[in-house]
Specification:
- This protein is of the alpha/beta class and 324 residues long.
- It folds into 2 domains: 210 residues, Rossmann fold, CATH 3.40.50; 87 residues, UDP-galactose 4-epimerase, domain 1 (Alpha-Beta Complex).
- The protein is 40% helix and 16% strand.
- The chain has a 7-stranded parallel sheet with strand order 3-2-1-4-5-6-10, with helices on both faces. Strands 7-9-11 form a 3-stranded mixed sheet. A two-stranded parallel ribbon has the order 8-12.
- Helix 1 crosses helix 8.
- The N and C termini lie far apart (43 Å).
């Protein structure tokens, strides 16, 4: 039984991941201090997880948590992640995503026998930015096109450098857009589902942008695959389904499932009060080559887009009924 510390444990992927990890491991979950977190709703996700509190930007607090947990593995998921907000508050993204990650990684080096620890890091498909060819392999040059993606590209390279220079075992995962959220309606799939269920007008700001959407259980399985192969270190892996569709196609598919009137879908406009995002920052496509993770870590997606959307619709239909 390994001792595993998960940062961002109360977030989307973290709260689902630890439900699987607690079956076979001793799991610690790091959360930042917050007076507003809805612990009642998170309770079912975080059962049997030992919670410890620290702000990633506080190196002393991070080192204290690492000494407490004494982890064999750290799965670092915590980050400021909404791309659109990073244009308005880039300094905050740098502090949390870069400085916070370095605090954690260098804190691991201060523990006894750091060479036996394993740091699994959540990068993102956003690090690639605009590319000429698809699907994109791991050795493609990184051209991040947002402050968020830039912070992730910096730490992606830094974490892998730590294996070469310091001997710290690391694995970096670059996952495509994931969905299946239970608490947050602000990402595209959940936004479309909940807005359509309420019968309200839907806005698709970049209808021709092509994306790969991966259901949460497949995303979680990618981290389990990295955990199961500690011998594969210092490398980055794409996790993707290979089923790329446009935002227009995604909206149309959900409209069919929900029998939502097409006249209420507005293409080429963002929702009112949507945060500013420069048009030049948009990635025309995110289409990753997942051959390496399939061959080296044995991971492959199990949930089709249709099945994942069906599960998401069923959940939010029940949830919105409960909240009404």
């Amino acid at each position: 039984m390994s001792r595993i510390l998960v940062t961002g444990v109360s977030g989307f992927i973290g709260s689902h991941l630890v439900q699987r990890l607690v079956r076979d491991h001793q799991v610690w979950g790091m959360v930042r201090p917050s007076a507003s977190r809805d612990w009642d709703r998170l309770g079912p996700f975080l059962r049997n997880v030992k919670l410890v509190t620290a702000d990633l930007t506080d190196p002393f607090g991070v080192r204290h948590v690492l000494r407490q947990a004494d982890p064999d593995v750290v799965i670092h998921l915590a980050a400021l992640s909404p791309v659109r907000h990073s244009f308005e508050m880039p300094q905050a993204y740098v502090q949390v995503n870069i400085v916070g990650t370095l605090n954690l990684a260098h804190g691991l080096l201060e523990l006894p026998q750091p060479e036996r620890r394993h740091l699994i890091y959540a990068a993102t498909a956003e690090v690639y930015g605009p590319q000429q060819k698809a699907p994109i392999p791991e050795d493609a040059p990184l051209h991040p096109s947002s402050p968020y993606a830039n912070t992730k590209a910096v730490t992606d390279m830094y974490i892998r450098m730590m294996t070469r220079v310091y001997g710290l075992p690391t694995t970096v995962l670059r996952c495509v857009n994931s969905y299946g959220r239970k608490l947050d309606r602000n990402f595209i799939v959940e936004y479309l589902v909940t807005t359509m269920l309420r019968g309200e007008r839907v806005y698709i700001g970049a209808p021709e942008s092509r994306r790969d959407y991966m259901y949460v259980t497949d995303h979680v399985a990618a981290y389990e695959a990295a955990l199961a192969h500690p011998e594969v270190t210092g490398e980055a892996f794409n996790a993707a389904t290979g089923n790329v569709i446009t935002n227009h196609e995604l909206a149309e598919r959900l409209a069919r499932i929900l029998r939502f009137p097409r006249r209420k879908i507005v293409y080429g406009e963002y929702p009112p009060d949507y945060p500013f995002r420069p048009l030049a920052s948009d990635q025309p496509f995110i289409d990753l080559d997942a051959t390496k993770i399939r061959e080296r870590l044995g991971w492959r997606p199990r949930v089709s887009l249709d099945e994942g959307l069906r599960r998401t619709v069923e959940y939010w239909r029940r949830e919105l009924t409960r909240l009404s």
